[in-house]
Amino acid sequence: MRHMHGINERSDSFLLAGLAAAMAFGLAACNNTATAPQAALPQVTVAHPLKREIVDWDEYTGRLAAPESVEVRARVSGYLTAAAFDEGAMVRKGDLLFVIDQRPYQATLESARAALAGAEARLELAGLNATRAAQLLDSKLLPQRDFDAASEERKAAAAALAAARAAVRSAELDLGFCEIRAPIGGRVGRRMVTAGNYIAGGGKDSTLLTTVVSLDPIHVYINADERAYLRYQRLAESGTRPSSHNQSNAARLALADEQGFPHEGRMDFVDNQVDPATGTVLGRAVFANPDGVLTPGMFARVQILGPAAYEALLVPDAAVAVDQTRRIVYVLDGNDTVQARQIEPGRQEGKLRVIRSGLEDGDRVVIKGLQRVRPGMSVEAVDGSIGE
Fold first, then answer.
1. CA 129, CA 148: separation in Å to the nearest integer?
2. Could you report how far apart the first and last alpha carbons of the chain are, in Å?
3. What does pTM read for this prediction?
4. What is the pLDDT of residues 117-158, one digit of tens each?
5. What is the pLDDT of residue 195?
């Protein structure tokens, strides 16, 4: 009995020791749990949308064209003796481009001048004869028919003199046409004919020598569809925006390698009908081009003034996210919980994006830290601002 009692005492001791160890471990675990730090909330930067007056621009693709373009052809025929210009250079109106051999035309002019001198002498003689005939007629010494013949001879001599003078003017013109000058100012093209070749002139089959296109100012042509054309008409009717038929509305242009729209111009023409083949209306804007960078034939992006100025909300373009087919921004409610707000974006203004609908000016929009948030999350908000 004493033996069994000893065994029981040892068992109780082991049991008590195990319970004490378990309690100690549990207490330690509780202490660790109580002192473990909670996970930090994601930090984001928020700001109210920027309010600004906006002028909308409608964007099109246009093609540059020279206001004036001339195919240079000769007015007289002959052998080309000189091409007095650098290909691709800028020329002024009246600059010498080509020279045709002038010797045959100089000879023709001298012959015409000699004929003119003879006609002048014959008229002078006919005038003297007519004067004498009139005196003799008064003295009854000359028949009437002889007087009439002398008078007609003077008229014929006067007509011959007029023809001789016209021949001289024509010969002078032909001699002048031997020097082919730039009909307009602009950039000249390449030589189509070199010196030494015979060229035909003065007709529909005249030889093409070169081309000249004007560059400053320069035109750009665009095509607006019927819907856009009707919208412009409705805006004009309501007084919101004048029609480009009647007023030179503002236009802006950018080349393929340019940021923004650095070239400013104005509308100067809208066609009077819709092209039935394309369903579009042709419009034209004019731009200053003093440095000649805008070149005929180039494509360009063109913006045409839209409706009148209005007040709009803007957020950084980077704050606009894509959710399948929707455009959204993240906003915080009063408890700093993230919400996805569907918006209708407008055009880009620098690094900002116009928001047409979906936001209020008092909304707190997440502008930094978008990659760390999801709808329904609680976040730590840091106030920021949207710069211009």
1. 11
2. 97
3. 0.64
4. 999 999 888 888 888 888 887 777 778 887 778 888 889 889
5. 92
Q: Helix 103-138 to helix 144-177 angle, to the nearest 10 degrees?
A: 160
Residue with the two structure tokens 């070199």 = 194
In the chain, the domains with their CATH numbers are: 45-54+310-383 (2.40.420.20), 57-67+216-305 (2.40.30.170), 72-213 (2.40.50.100)
Q: Whole-angstrom Cα distance, residue 333 to residue 152?
A: 111
